[in-house]
Amino acid sequence: MRRTLLILGCCIPGLLPAETVMLRKAGNPAVVTFEYITQDEETVMVRIPGRDGVLVYRWDELDQDHAKTNNPRLWEERLLLIKPPESSGMKKKAEDDDPFAAAAKPNTPQDLSRNLQGELSEGLKGIPVTSVAVASRESNIDELVFWRVYEELRKLSGRPAGSEPEIAKAAGDDGEEPQAKTSGSGQPQSKSSSKSKATSSSRSPAQLAEIQARAAKARADFENDVRPFTGTGYLKLLSDATKARFAWAMLRRASDDRRQIIAALRRQDAAAAELSDRLQDKTAKGDIAVFRKAVTTLADSLEKVTREATAMESGLTAEAQAVLARLPR
After folding, report:
1. Rounded distance, CA 150 to CA 34, Å?
2. Does residue 109 belong to any structural domain of this protein?
3. 30 and 169: one domain?
4. Mean of the pLDDT values across residues 266-277?
5. Are 228 and 123 in contact (CB under 8 A)?
6. Residue 178: per-residue pLDDT
7. How many CB atoms lie within 10 A of CB 223?
8. CB of 6 closer than 8 Å to CB of 56
9. In a shared domain, residues 76 and 140
């Protein structure tokens, strides 16, 4: 296409500005000035100024050292055309020379743990503010309690707490936190989720102000793609039996977060399988087997956390604890 347009430009004066080049044939001292048209890997196309005829010369019949010295722009273009494709061996060497690539490839069970920790530290968005009230109702959790644990998830994720002092001020003396009770089966149960479930009309002005302040903060985070949470934060919340249901309720609706955590677990399981095949040490192989069991079991359970799920898997807390135990301290 480029050659067609350039040839067309040669035929229509003034369409394209002409660039002059100086060429000579190998073994011939005569230098001729041409108007440059285009080139490919083997030939260069030019014309004599003031004439319509197009001339094509093979590069191997020209004095290339002379062309390189006297026509730097022409030669730069030629180098781009003749640059050999990067071989797989060169790509492998580039990967070996890249410290990030080298760090990503595990060579020990400890490397697997570090790599998983790195993947679980990537930012996650959570759920839209408009989904919080719905998620609270679906999970039978008081909305104010939900918002406070939402902030706790941010802290467990290692993210800055932001404007918590203003929120605490807005809450005032009436901001005493409703506690989450635990049922006999070990499942957390909101204090206000049964007979005395709170509504907007039953809340104090301070509690309503706190909900509005926390919602405004979360809305700004979501709209600005702040990503205040991490997979590690979710797992820490899941590992707390009294608060695991809050993380479960969020993950039901935060499908992108859930998929990212599952993908991280699956990738490190695949890396662990590849590492186990390379190693001969039985102790290391045993550690890898334990690692794989923990990450695959949790990934399988998280895949069941969907909008259609009505109850949290009973073993989810223990499974989150097992994966956290495999991460570096």
Report:
1. 72
2. no
3. no
4. 94
5. yes
6. 46
7. 10
8. no
9. no
Query: Do residues 160 and 298 share a domain?
Result: yes
Letter for the amino acid at 298? L
Token representation of residue 44: 């260069």
Helix (H, G, I), strand (E, B) or coil at 223: helix
Tell me the C-alpha distance between 240 and 37, whole Å.
72
Q: Are 162 and 149 in contact (CB under 8 A)?
A: no
pLDDT at 326: 93
63-72, 199-208, 235-244: least confident range: 199-208
Neighbours of 300 (CB within 10 A): 13
Q: Are residues 226 and 321 in the same domain?
A: yes
What range does the domain containing 319 cover?
Answer: 115-185+199-326
Q: Do 39 and 176 lie in a common domain?
A: no
Is residue 53 domain-shared with residue 152, that is, in the same domain?
A: no
> Same structural domain for residues 52 and 127?
no
- Looking at residue 6, what is its pLDDT? 45
Tell me, what amino acid is at 107? Answer: N
Residue 284, exposed/middle/buried by CB under 10 A (0-12, 13-18, 19+)?
Answer: middle
83 burial (CB, 10 Å; 0-12 / 13-18 / 19+) is exposed
Could you give the number of structural domains in the chain? Answer: 2
Write the single-letter amino acid at 207: Q
Three-class secondary structure of residue 133 per DSSP: helix
Residue at token pair 């990067």: 86
Strands 19-23 and 32-39: antiparallel
Asked, for residue 44, whether it belongs to a domain, the answer is yes
**List of long-range contacts for 9-14, beta carbons under 8 Å, 24+ apart:** 9/37, 10/35, 10/37, 10/47, 10/52, 10/54, 11/52
